[in-house]
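Q: Hi! First time doing this. I have a protein sequence and I read that you can turn it into a structure. Is that right? Here it is:
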Amino acid sequence: MLGLAVGVSAAALGQTFTVLHRFRGSPKDGEAPLGALLMDAAGNLYGTTLQGGKYSSCLPAGVGCGTVFKLDTNGMETILHNFDGSGGAESSATLIMDANGDLYGTTTYGGGDGCGTINSVGCGLVFKLSSDGKETVLHRFTGGADGAWPLAGLVMDANGVLYGTTNSGGTYQQGVVFKLVGKKETVLYAFTGGEDGAGPDAGTLLDANGNLYGTATYGGDINCLYPDPCGVVYKLVGRKETVLHAFKGSPDGMYPTAGLVMDAAGNLYSTTYDGGDGANGGTVFEVSQDRKERLLHTFGADGRKYDGDSPQGGVVFDPYGNLYGTTVYGGKGCCGTVFEITADGKEKILHSFCTTDCMDGAFPSGDLIIDANGNLYGTTSTGGANRNGTVFMITP
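A: Yes, that's right. Below is the predicted 3D structure, encoded as structure tokens:
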């Protein structure tokens, strides 16, 4: 477990909240961590930041092109890599690690010229970062049939094949699902923007049979127009897509921006950013393999005063069937929450950000992770001493 000498702690509903790191921004370290954290076997944490770092030439206003960071078990931070534009810019990806300790991820921009991006720095890329800090670009997206602007991280199968999504590009310019064998990219599916979905913000989930699952933020049911169709949950077997659920806005939610988790029975769980049978604060849902959806929680329904609002990240399970996640807004400080949905369907707010001075962080947008002791770890996109974001832990 990470050392608790860093940050401040406060008890909330029997939980202990600790700030493990406050980001300082360019040029010292990163700024605006959006993705989830990765924990290795020794308890070290790894992540990416959207901005900050040494190199500001690829983006305006000198905010920096982003970083890859590590926090050791004493809370000490090491910057493993500074993105420089040609080697990527603005990563919101959750990292994965192979058996050799090499890290893999994506950057939304960078990698080359064109693509209509900021300062024409490119359409994004897939990278590998070796344990000695050397970056290798595995694929640069062109904005054509191969895709553009990957927002999420990757998954890897037992053979080392990588799978991911892009938010745009592809044959119909609505995003793709791709696989990468070494440096060879193959598009498995190009979204059309119709009933099959469009614009996936999230990556994919890989099951034991090699099937892929994910969410597309838009597309789906044409009767749900807010102003776009409200998104889908999909399954990909080879190159054949099946829509498991198309959101309708109310009561089931709309705009799923997060990835999925699966239980032992094959049921899928995640959140929607908007919609629901309440104040359009989003939902937590379950979708079965036979296309049945079950609504687990609607944020802002029934006039709940300090409920969360707008979950952008997904959910994580504990061994007892409880689900945990974050909302970007809502809570007592109006700057987001960490919530629990118990196995019997009750919601608990474990932490509300910015109830005093925002030193604890604000606006968490990524998934949580959970360790073997039930400790939860996450990031906030802003807040902290320099308003550049934080890494936090909640101990049961």
